[in-house]
Amino acid sequence: MKEQEIFKEKAVSGYTVCFAAQCPLKDRCLRWKVGQQMPDTKSSYHCVNPHYQDVATEHCPLFRQSEKVQFAQGMMHIFNADMPRRVEPYVRSHFIASHCKTYYYEYRNGERLISPAIQEEIRDLFRETGWNQEVHFDSYVEDYEW
């Protein structure tokens, strides 16, 4: 699917868009690019409030990078036989405590993509147990961080 078609589909589906033309980040912002694909047949949509503090500045809290990032998909094979027994329960329990059991199992089963930030959080949990070897997720996909 072409990028413009993906953006148009997101615009129609309710993704929050932005029309702050004076924003210094607009050329790199996913919300701006999706907003530019908003069809003229749509009478209303979700839009960033241009009067909200820091919108249309270098520190916009609603900015979304318009470049694809690498998401991990699945953690069925993340724990291996070489790991000490303490690693798996530590990682699982701490992840569930900071997120929730549902998210843990959705990430584990590949039903929910694992963002780069969550991947790093998981790697940090492994490091906290003393495991310093590379952590491998089941697979990787590139997508926008909506």
Describe this structure in words.
By secondary structure, this protein is mainly α. Helices cover 34% and strands 7% of the residues. It has 5 helices and 2 strands; from the N terminus they run ααβαααβ. It has helices spanning 3-13, 30-35, 87-98, 101-108, 116-128, and strands at residues 69-73, 139-143. A two-stranded antiparallel ribbon has the order 1-2. Helix 3 (87-98) packs across helix 4. The chain is elongated. The protein starts with a helix and ends with a strand. The relative contact order is 0.17.
Physical arrangement of strands within the biggest beta sheet? 1-2
Helix content: 25-40%
The largest sheet is: 2 strands, antiparallel
The SS-based structural class is mainly alpha
Strand content range: 5-15%
Regions with little confidence, pLDDT below 50 for 5+ residues? none
With helices defined by DSSP (H or I, 4 residues minimum), what is the helix count? 5
**Separation of termini?**
16 Å
Counting DSSP E segments of at least 2 residues, the number of strands comes to 2
Radius of gyration: 19 Å
Order of helices and strands: HHEHHHE
Q: What is the overall pLDDT average? A: 92
Q: Report the principal-axis shape.
A: elongated
Layout of strands and helices, then pairs:
Blueprint: H1 3-13, H2 30-35, E1 69-73, H3 87-98, H4 101-108, H5 116-128, E2 139-143
Antiparallel strand pairs: 1-2
Helix pairs in contact: 3-4
Keywords:
single chain, 146 residues, mainly alpha, two-stranded antiparallel sheet, 34% helix
